[in-house]
Specification:
Layout (H helix, E strand, L loop, with lengths): L3 H10 L1 H8 L11 E4 L7 E4 L2 E2 L1 H11 L6 E7 L4 E6 H17 L7 E5 L4 H13 L2 E4 L6 H11 L3 E5 L1 E4 L2 E4 H11 L6 E5 L13 E3 H10 L9 E2 L3 E7 L7 E6 L1 H13 L8 E4 L6 H13 L3 E5 L11 H9 L1 E6 L1 H10 L16 E4 L6 H11 L3 E3 L11 E2 L16 E2 L5 E4 L12 E6 L14 H9 L5 E10 L5 E6 L3 E4 L2 E4 H9 L4 E11 L3 E10 L9 H13 L8 E4 L13 H8 L14 H12 L7
Parallel strand pairs: 4-17, 6-7, 6-8, 8-11, 11-12, 16-17, 16-18, 18-19, 19-20, 30-31
Antiparallel strand pairs: 1-2, 3-13, 4-5, 9-10, 14-15, 21-22, 23-24, 24-25, 25-26, 27-28, 29-30
This protein binds coenzyme A and adenosine monophosphate (AMP).
Coenzyme A binds next to strand 9 and helix 12.
């Protein structure tokens, strides 16, 4: 029997009481004046007037409770052949020491620090060190290029950047330092300090007066026995900024506060994920994404669990048994990853033969998120792993699941295609364009009645107007998720597609609008459209359609190659922008809007109707022929 209905009803009848009770699992310097203050911020703020420290709750608290010898982080890196267990005691020592290194460089409460690092323990140490001294971190994913890093530097004006000399991708070393130097060159804002973790795979050259060697700085501070204490911050102060793709080249700086974030994440560990303190939880994501922030670093540590930090891939490091090896060696009880990782494993090991080589008997559940989970993948995982497979839906903006099957409250019946039901905190509605609820089964915009729950974004970094216009104005009184979908008679949610031009490539959130801006900037391009087409492995892939300027006379495919390189240089390899098709004209409505939806339907080989407003129907035939000639229609 699930307790979900009872718990959800308890939240709905008195949300403040519900969250105040959950907040008892957190240690506070000062309790809140108001559990929820409706007059503060853009739509109200949680735990107004409280004081706390997130790093204290992640580390000190467990050490003080006598659990210092418990493993906090297990670093497993097949790409460097390293395994390291860091206890809570050791983690506290490392974090407090590094926090002192930052404090010695003048970083104090409210200062921003960019963290540009691969999946190494120092990434989590840097994040927690910032939290300890009240600095606001902003982690930038390693697969982003210099220009993306520069945009973030200018937006959040960090006093310091903490980076590694390199990341390691299968078969290639990604040197971060030249990208960092280039980004600082490009940015108008210049950070005062860069702390560089030198990795032996690529030793970076250092800039005198600005760059500090991580190991040397830590060794010096350690020798002097200096450690930074936890700084009390307002519960409503930002813990971090995490940039995510919007509809333009300017990413959105999602702000996460301290108090609400701790309360929701701590609540989610036993109730949604069914995890006890001391158990091993593995989010196979990257600290550069929200899943990494919430479920590699903060939630497991807030809960006193052990978190796996895995520097590798699901396949190729060295084989499709990589996940099962990690699960068996470290006795993982719950795995959280994106469906694409399972599609990659299934592609290389359809029979699941590698699973049999390992003892994965500790595994109790698999959670999937980041993109729509297809039924084939879920069923394959269910059959091969013989554990509940739970699709759950969330966004960078919310920081924790909007809808899930709450394992800890008792599992609900699975309906394939649905991430199950809204979690407490989320009053989920399906609305039409007039903000009126639609009937069960009918599709509309998935919207959350305000206020958002604790942990969800209170605003965008220094952009309250953009926050309001992006999320709150379309449907007054609601937060619009920009996902379309429906709810059935039983209250199960179905998330069908984005309503904006955000796409999900291998679980990575990208903006086709941003790619269009870059492609349109090429001197030979007259106009273009970038659309996300279905892909069996990565879920979606971006494809560019370009019309060249009249009179451009270049070798076949030359401009296309340049465009691929341009997007790789501007956004980074993670954009996976590898397909460009030159066409004579783009299909448009009579008012000049490009018919991206129709182009997507053609590429995905779905049924489509001739749009009534089309300007020239012949263009769709031209495009279809051009796609066919290049095998760019699904299944062709
Ligand atoms: N630093 C530098 N480059 C990176 C990178 C990083 N941290 N992560 C990815 N890249 C590069 C890849 O090397 C690849 O480069 P290439 O074009 O030269 O081959 C490119 O970015 C695209 O990466 P990706 O889309 O991840 O494809 P992939 O073929 O390398 O791997 C999967 C495919 C499915 C194995 C991989 O995407 C994966 O493990 N996904 C899990 C999803 C996930 O973690 N989602 C996060 C939210 S839960
Ligand atoms: P991100 O901000 O990177 O977490 O991406 C959020 C977007 O990913 C959502 O708005 C959805 O479009 C999509 N998404 C995440 N999880 C799911 C899911 N379980 N089912 C369907 N779509 C999902």
């Amino acid at each position: 029997m699930t307790r979900y209905h009872e718990v959800y009803a308890a939240w709905k009848s008195d949300p403040e009481e519900f969250w105040a009770k959950a907040a008892q699992d957190i240690t506070w310097y000062k309790l809140w004046d108001k559990v929820f203050d409706p007059y503060m911020g853009e739509y109200g703020r949680w735990f107004a007037g409280s004081e706390c420290n997130t790093a204290y709750n992640c580390l000190d608290r467990h050490v003080e409770a006598g659990n210092g010898d418990r493993a906090a982080i297990i670093y497993d890196s097949p790409v460097t052949d390293t395994k390291q267990t860091i206890t809570y005691d050791e983690m506290l020592h490392k974090v407090a020491t590094f926090a002192q290194v930052l404090a010695d460089r003048g970083i104090t409460k409210g200062d921003r620090v960019i963290v540009y690092m691969p999946m190494v323990p120092e990434a989590a140490i840097a994040m927690l060190a910032c939290a300890r001294i009240g600095a606001i971190h902003s982690v930038v994913f390693g697969g982003f290029a210099a220009a993306e890093l520069a945009t973030r530097i200018d937006d959040c004006s960090p006093k310091a950047i903490v980076a590694a000399s390199c990341g390691i991708e299968p078969g290639r070393i990604v040197e971060y330092k030249p990208l960092l130097d280039q980004a600082i060159e490009l940015a108008e804002h210049k950070p005062e300090t860069c702390v560089i973790l030198q990795r032996e795979q690529a030793i970076a050259s250092m800039i005198d007066g600005r760059d500090v060697d991580w190991a040397a700085a830590v060794a010096g501070t350690e020798a002097e026995g200096r450690k930074a204490p936890c700084v009390p911050v307002a519960g409503t102060d930002p813990l971090y900024i995490l940039y995510t793709s919007g509809t333009t080249g300017q990413p959105k700086g999602v702000v996460r506060d301290n108090a609400g974030h701790m309360v929701s994440l701590k609540w989610s560990m036993p109730n949604i994920y069914g995890i006890e303190p001391g158990e091993v939880f593995w989010a196979a994501s990257d600290v550069g994404w929200v899943v990494g922030h919430s479920y590699i670093v903060y939630a497991p540590l807030l809960h006193g669990a052990t978190s796996i930090l895995y520097e590798g891939k699901p396949v190729g490091t060295p084989d499709p048994g990589a996940f099962w090896r990690v699960i068996s060696e470290h006795k993982v009880v719950s795995l959280f990853t994106a469906p694409t990782a399972f599609r990659a494993i299934k592609k290389d090991d359809a029979e699941g033969a590698y699973i049999g080589k390992y003892d994965i008997s500790h595994l109790r559940s698999l959670f999937l998120a980041g993109e729509r989970a297809d039924t084939d993948t879920i069923q394959w995982a269910e059959q091969k792993l013989k554990v509940p497979v739970i699709d759950h839906w969330w966004q960078t903006e919310t920081g924790w699941p909007i809808a899930s099957n709450p394992l800890g409250l008792g599992r609900m019946p699975v309906k394939y295609g649905s991430p199950t039901v809204p979690m407490p905190g989320y009053d989920m509605q399906v609305l039409d364009e007039n903000a009126k609820p639609v009937a069960p089964g009918e599709t509309g915009t998935l919207a959350i009645k305000l206020p958002l729950p604790p942990a969800a974004l209170p605003t965008l970094w220094q952009a309250p107007e953009r926050f309001r216009s992006s999320y709150l104005t379309e449907l007054p009184g609601y937060y619009t998720t920009s996902d379309a979908g429906y709810m059935d008679e039983d209250g199960y949610v179905y998330v069908m597609q984005r309503t904006d031009d955000v796409i999900n490539v291998a679980g990575h959130r990208l903006s086709t609008g941003q790619m269009e801006e870059i492609v349109a900037g090429h001197r030979d391009v007259a106009e273009c459209a970038v659309i996300g087409v279905e892909d069996d492995l990565k879920g979606q892939l971006p494809v560019g359609y370009v019309v060249l300027n009249a009179g451009v006379n270049r070798e076949d495919g030359e401009v296309e190659k340049e465009l691929v390189q341009l997007v790789r240089t501007e956004i980074g390899p993670v954009a996976a922008f590898k397909n460009v098709l030159t066409v004579k004209r783009l299909p448009k409505t009579r008012s000049g809007k490009i018919l991206r939806g129709t182009m997507r339907a053609i590429a995905d080989a779905r049924d489509w109707k001739m749009p009534a407003t089309i300007d020239d129907p012949a263009i769709l035939d031209e495009i279809t022929d051009a796609m066919k000639a290049r095998d760019m229609i699904k299944g062709s």
